[in-house]
Write a structure and sequence with these properties.
Layout: H1 3-19, E1 23-27, E2 37-42, H2 48-61, E3 65-69, H3 76-84, E4 87-89, H4 95-105, E5 109-112, E6 125-126, E7 129-130, E8 132-134, E9 137-139, H5 144-165, H6 167-177, E10 190-200, H7 208-217, H8 223-238, E11 241-246, E12 250-251, H9 259-265, H10 280-300, E13 303-304, H11 306-316, E14 321-322, H12 324-338, E15 345-346, H13 348-351, H14 365-375, E16 379-382, E17 385-388, H15 391-394, H16 402-405, H17 407-414, H18 419-429, H19 433-459, H20 468-471, E18 474-476, H21 481-486, E19 487-492, H22 503-511, E20 515-518, H23 528-531, H24 536-553, E21 556-562, H25 564-575, E22 581-585, H26 602-611, E23 621-623, E24 635-637, H27 638-651, E25 662-667, H28 675-684, E26 690-695, H29 708-721
Parallel strand pairs: 1-11, 2-5, 2-10, 3-4, 3-5, 13-15, 19-20, 19-21, 21-22, 22-25, 25-26
Antiparallel strand pairs: 6-7, 8-9, 10-11, 10-12, 14-17, 16-17, 18-20, 23-24
Length: 722
């Protein structure tokens, strides 16, 4: 190895990585032994691993890391370069002895790819067994890493044993390995560390590197090279998450505790490196066991992402026809289930709540998957349905083009070794649509109810908290079953209140035949201390869960709310396209639209004190004197007012994008919300049609109390016309 070239290459790889948009996330570095000799066994999907992993592992271990490389790479200038930086050809006749020698001395750790070559299709399982598919056919994974680790530990122990009783044989064996003295022998154990590398997303497309290659070399570039540049270049240039997981080390010393092996270790005879010995058969059997063990570890460390789940679901579903909403619900159920599996490693995009799949797809994960699936012909959109082309998922792969031509199959293949996940996917894939809807509703209702119970217990205040019935979210089926399944209403309470605030309206709508779900905004229905800790985004998540519940229960959804709940209803209508109508009762547009009684000057005073970093004098709560004291908080957290302000500021630019028919209801003498604020909301709406209803009330809480039935009739009349 040319040490100057090795160090220079490390700097070059570091520079290339820093210029790329890839985000590398390391997991389990604590599993790397601090001493001894290590062979890292790594799954092989791209050329990136060949160059990147030696640099990364050397950085973690502070020791040189060499690797085995396919013999086809050792030609011309590239071969000379690989040779100079510590790569050894798989066909080098001195390969095994060199690897064992450098492991014995601790001169280097090694990387070995057990598949033997790149597995571009990620197809590693066939009929429950590990089988590697490649351009020339199929073969079982190699046991080379296990065999080399066993031989290293065997000769390490033999040398240490000979040192005690036969110095002549010790010197002969050291000479065979070209090791100067016993002082060079590594005293720590020999270990195999399994490593999994998962890339997300995988998108093969034209990029600056592929264009440059065509310019420099011409259009006769082999398909293999074009595919690798398109896939791996796109991954590096457009931004890809590279999750690298180090598994628990396999201590090879545990496999030395066998009578046959121990006898050969202590043998007083003389035998060379490749001489037949009595324990060779035993070590071959052990190598197979070790190989199975590290392959299980590698592939069970796959970092599961949303592409994997969508692709696996598309492959497993028995129905040729589905639709977007159904596919999203099935993947939502799988994501919810795998989040409870401690043994499954999740990409960071699956660790958060996946409600966005059932609402606005705000992170574009479904959209991005669909663009690939439709672009490659796996899915076809027709009359609102999705039609699967099953041949795209089962036909033989062109090894060198599979990542370009059939990326959905590649995504699905990647998680085939995860048996528990595969079982879950199959179970959900075969469920009828109506059962999937019920399961989604049940899952979300359970989650929302549990969240309320946990918050209530954590923030209960004997002098201020109301009964649980006030704050608990609820679902009321419509009186007419056929109608309740057709249309559902998401009904949102206001700031400082609870779901009980809208119960009278909910019962009225249920009598009219509509199903109604009233969510609890996070921080409400418990105590003011809870609300003081919440962001308005927490309220949005509560609404998203509510929408997913009612949308999975009914074909059509109307959304509405009171005061701050009205603003949240409008926000949802701006984000979700299939809402049939929206009503907003007394919605404020800006903080200035709220009375000084509701938002006192103390909020501005607190901000002023914070700006000048004045300690003391800040007030966290102000007194509130609600119209409905049996429901509302009696203290208003200033932090909550700030979140209310942020919500309204975020909502205003979205109003023009609302297209669903909209009703604004306002009390003409509202003491809390200035009617000019709700009029401003109405004027900025992009909805057609839209209606502004100004009613004769001198109070804010017009959904309860005297005359509330008039408001209820206006709202139910609006819904009936949709």
């Amino acid at each position: 190895m040319n040490r100057f070239a090795y160090r220079t290459t490390g700097l070059a790889i570091k520079t290339i990585y820093n210029l790329s948009k890839a985000d590398m996330i390391l997991h389990g570095q604590e599993n790397i032994p601090k001493n001894g000799s290590i062979i890292f066994v790594i799954n092989h999907f791209t050329r990136i691993e060949t160059f990147l992993m030696p640099y990364l592992i050397a950085k973690q271990t502070s020791r040189a890391v060499w690797s085995l490389a396919d013999e086809s790479l050792f030609g011309g200038t590239l071969g000379e370069f690989l040779d100079s930086v510590g790569a050894v050809s798989t066909k080098d006749p001195q390969r095994d002895q060199l690897i064992v020698k450098t492991l014995l001395t601790g001169e280097a750790h090694w990387i070995i790819f057990p598949e033997g070559r790149m597995v571009k299709s990620q197809k590693i399982i066939e009929k429950g067994r590990y089988i590697v598919s490649y351009a020339g056919g199929k073969h079982p994974p190699h046991t080379g890493a296990a065999t080399l680790a066993l031989r290293t530990e065997f000769y390490r122990r033999r040398l240490l044993e000979l040192e005690k009783q036969d110095l002549a044989e010790t010197d002969r064996l050291l000479g065979e390995f070209k090791i100067p003295s016993m002082g060079s022998i590594q005293r720590g154990p020999t270990c195999i560390v399994p490593v999994n590398i998962t890339y997300y997303p995988i998108r093969a497309k034209e990029n600056i590197l592929s264009k440059l290659a065509v310019t420099l070399v011409g259009r006769d570039i082999p398909d293999r090279v074009v595919e690798e540049i398109m896939t791996e270049g796109a991954m590096l240039l457009s931004g890809v998450d590279i999750d690298i997981r180090f598994g628990a080390p396999i201590d090879i010393g545990n496999y030395m505790q066998c009578t046959t092996i121990e006898q050969d270790i202590c043998s007083k005879g003389s035998f060379g490196f490749d001489a037949p010995i009595a324990s060779r058969k035993q070590m071959r059997r052990d190598a197979l066991k070790i190989m199975k063990r590290y392959l299980d570890a590698i592939y069970n460390m796959t970092t599961v992402n949303s592409d994997h789940l969508f692709a696996a679901m598309v492959r497993q579903m028995p129905y040729r026809k589905t639709n977007e909403a159904d596919l999203k619900r099935r993947v939502f159920l799988i994501a919810s289930e795998v989040s409870r599996h401690q043994s499954i490693h999740l990409h960071r995009n699956l660790k958060d709540n996946q409600l966005h799949l059932l609402t606005d797809d705000r992170f574009h994960r479904f959209r991005d998957f669909m663009s690939v699936a439709i672009g490659k012909g796996v899915l076809l959109q027709k009359n609102g349905d999705l039609l699967r082309d099953t041949t795209k998922l089962s036909s033989p792969f062109d090894f060198h083009r599979v990542r370009i031509d059939n990326p959905i199959a590649v995504m699905a293949n990647a998680i085939e070794p995860l048996r528990a996940l595969q079982k879950s996917v199959r179970q959900v894939a075969w469920l009828p649509k109506f059962i999937v809807r019920r399961k989604v509703v049940k899952e979300l209702l359970k989650t929302e109810t549990a969240a309320f119970e946990a918050d209530y217990a954590a923030f209960f205040n004997a002098s201020e908290s109301k009964g649980k019935k006030i704050g608990r979210p609820y679902l009321i089926p419509g009186k007419l079953r056929w109608k309740s399944r057709r249309t559902g209403v998401l009904l949102i309470h206001g700031y400082l209140a609870a779901p009980a605030e809208v119960r009278e309206l909910a019962l009225h709508l249920a009598q009219k035949g509509y199903s109604v779900y009233a969510p609890r905004l996070k921080g409400h229905g418990t105590s003011p201390e809870d609300l003081a800790l919440r962001k308005y985004q927490d309220w949005v998540k509560s609404i998203d869960a509510g929408y997913a519940i009612i949308r999975s229960s009914c074909k059509r959804v109307i959304v509405g709310g009171f005061s701050t709940g009205a603003g949240l209803a409008l926000d949802l209508a701006a984000r979700v396209s299939d809402i049939q109508g929206v009503f907003a009762v007394c919605p404020p547009m800006r903080l200035q639209d709220l009375s000084a009684k509701f938002v006192p000057a103390v909020a501005a005073w607190n901000r002023l004190l914070q700006k000048f970093q004045v300690n003391g004098g800040q007030k966290a709560f102000v007194d509130n004197h609600p119209e409905h004291p049996h429901i509302n908080y009696h203290r208003n957290p200033i932090a909550g007012v700030r979140e209310l302000e942020r919500l309204m500021r975020a909502l205003e630019p979205k109003l023009a994008g609302i297209r669903a028919p909209t009703l604004i209801v306002q009390a003409d003498r509202d003491p809390v919300v200035d009617p000019r604020g709700s009029r401003s909301v109405f004027e900025q709406l992009g909805a057609i049609p839209k209606t502004y209803s100004l009613l004769n009330f001198s109070r804010h809480g017009i959904l309860l109390g005297e005359g509330a039935e008039k408001v209820h009739q206006v709202i139910s009349g609006f819904i009936q016309q949709l």
